[in-house]
Amino acid sequence: MRTFLYSLIAATVATLSGPALAKDKLTIYTYESFTADWGPGPVVKKEFEAECGCDVAFVSVADGVALLNRVKLEGASTKADIVLGLDTNLTADAKATGLFAPHGAVSDVTVPGGWSDDTFVPFDYGYFAVVYDTEKLKMPPKSLKELVEGSADDKIVIQDPRTSTPGLGLLLWVKSVYGDKAPEAWAKLKTKVLTVTPGWSEAYGLFTKGEAPMVLSYTTSPAYHMVAENTERYQAASFEEGEYLQIEVAGITTTGAKNPLAQKFMTFMTGPKFQDAIPETNWMFPAGKTDKPLNPAFDKLVKPTKTLLFSPEVVAANRKAWVDEWLAVMSK
Amino acid sequence: MALAHPTDPRVGAGIMALAAIALLIGGAFAGLLVEGAGDLSGAWAAFDPYLLRVVRFTLWQAALSTLLSVGPALFVARALSRHPHFPGRAFILQLFAVPLALPAIVAALSILALYGRAGYFAGLFSAIGGQGWPGIYGLSGILVAHVFFNLPLATRLFLEALQTIPSDQWRLASQLGMGARPAFRLIEWPTLRAALPGVAGLVFMLCITSFTIVLTLGGGPAATTLEVGIYQALRFDFDPARAVALTLLQIGLTFIVVLALARLGANVTGDASLPVAPRRYLSVDRTEASLNATLIVLASLFVAGPMAATVAAGLGADLGRLAGEATVRQATLTSAVLAFLSALLSVMLSLALTVARRALVLNRRSGPRTLLEHATDTGAGFVLVVPPIVIGAGWFLLLRHVGDVFAIAPIMVVTVNAVMAMPFALRAVRPAYDAASERHERLCAQLGISGLARLRLVDWPSLRRPLATAFAFAMALSLGDLGVIALFGSDSVQTLPYLLLARMGSYRTQDAAGLALLLGLVCLALVLAADRLGKGMARDV
Questions:
Q1: Is residue A124 a contact partner of residue A248, using CB atoms and an 8 Å limit?
Q2: Which of A74, A144, B31, B302 could be stapled to A78 by a disulfide with Cβ–Cβ 3.0 to 4.6 Å?
Q3: In Å, what is the CA distance from B450 to each residue of B9, B437, B438?
Q4: What homologous superfamily does CATH list for B46-312?
């Protein structure tokens, strides 16, 4: 009986003192495909845990927009130290919440057009592109103009800018090329649009099912099919006017500002151990230093002649008006 | 004589169920309003000319979808009830519960696999039309998809109602040598008509809140429902006040339609005597039999077609590897457990509301219906037009001040799904309970049996089968849920549809197809189990 009592006390003490002995923890909110088995998450977790001797906990939601919403819903009581996976179209909104803290000094990043932001740090980037099926479309459009004015028989599936990030990307792309003439361009493009889906998955699903020969996706989409499926059937069209850029960023929350690991992670994120994992798990271009060369499949991808991008402030100020403008034309 | 005493425990049970539902919805609204009260401009700005067009389209597509689902379902249900030994009947009925569990995107892709521009029938349609088949994008696509979801649902609910017709009526009809036509007019139609407003209302609510189907198959933002606006308000704009305003508009519109539908209905004059005749049916003449058979086969093909496409696509996936993945196994288990719990809660809620409504009806004798009676009747059904994302977001905002939002995620998923599935379960349970009550009420009053004893001894035998149907539907619905889980889901709570969408979102289309097949199979297995449970004593009734 006495032994039992002692062991009970010992167990209680061990339990109580447990948290003090436990490793420090870093909580990262991100999107689903990042933490999936095939995503960069597992590699990143392993590498960073080895480096910091801490525990990394991922919490994932559907996508970048859902990510920002989750943080807004949780407010200042959020458990997130780091929010990873917003894009530049969301950063102005994100800053306005006051839930993010300056990142300190992380400078080792290279993205087209350069980077200077005191709150968010890029971890990868990609370009929106019209991806086409080479078996269905022999003469892909060579410019946005050709796409807009081409035959109405060559259909494209696009996403709704009210619900999806690529949908908003295309809207901004057309706006940056056509400016005030964007409504006229949409009126022409409308005849070629097979359907407008709520998200990327639905659109890409319709495309690979053969419903339409073109879909709005990324220049890096063909890399997936080349590397994982060993086929060059799906290719991105290169547009004369250039491609619209998407930069994915991470930021430290006000909660994370109190956790020294957050700062460490941001530095780690721009280093080779994180960046090496990006191309073939997230199918985007690395924004920091890598050790490994890119898979040759990436060399075959479309290289934009010109990079198009609105600043976060311009997007935040005009998004609603531009979406309404789009809606007025498309819902006629 | 009022059969039910004012302090009938049944009324109490109903009030408790109503209170739970009101708490769930009211809490969510409160959460959103507290957050959004600071800025109501978005709520007002929502009411613009574009909204008028959206409302018009929302109502139009929902009305057409309801008509096309419910109309044929009346006749398919009747055909099925006339032929209890139709080959494969049980399987057809089980199959009819599966569409509910399929995520909208899976159903959309499966329907397009048949009728799309690159579908199986595209060649045939092109040959008939003389030019390239343009696919079914637009209103036609929306309607096909909605009928695919709702025709099977309405059929099963109508069939459930038809099975409450006392066997004495059939015996009498048989003795009188009634033909198919008068039998339909005098026996079946009154029962169907009583069930019609409820079923049509349910289908209408499902169509009015349709989101992915309308956007994907609608062909462009000209085809948009209010639900899209609500989603947009909470997602991109994070404008809780506007989300609440639009949700209230959606509830208001549905209310008007459901009120109008109620006029189509009729009260069945039930049969108060205990059935003494064994179950028997009118003999069906040959013309009618072949007509019925054609009807059943056509409806089954229409429903089975897209499902076959789902199976075909799923078989192309690396099923062995998928089944071996720990994530997939875990998600399957999570899905099954959550769906089971939701269905259980859902059936309990529905039963409470059903018995309360019946007690109130008996109590009232004549005169206008009380508010409470309305609430237990159609009122509770309106939860269906409150988007899960609204409930989820509202509670998220409320609870973040109180405790750990992650810890309550599974509870939220179960509760919200249970409440969402409750209107389905209600439709399945009520006709049987009301019919049983008509027969047993006097006896119970005389013997003084009430409460749990009555439920166990008197009601259970006749409720067993409809409860199983209700359970199957509630489970299928929860199994396919994506609304709540998308908001609350974290890495610790992943369901099959969630996993499916994740795979689709990262190029793994084959995996997604395999998971859709798995989801369909899990649903079928659960429905099968529910049916088995329900069968046991049903034969004696």
A1: yes
A2: A74
A3: 8, 12, 15
A4: MetI-like (1.10.3720.10)
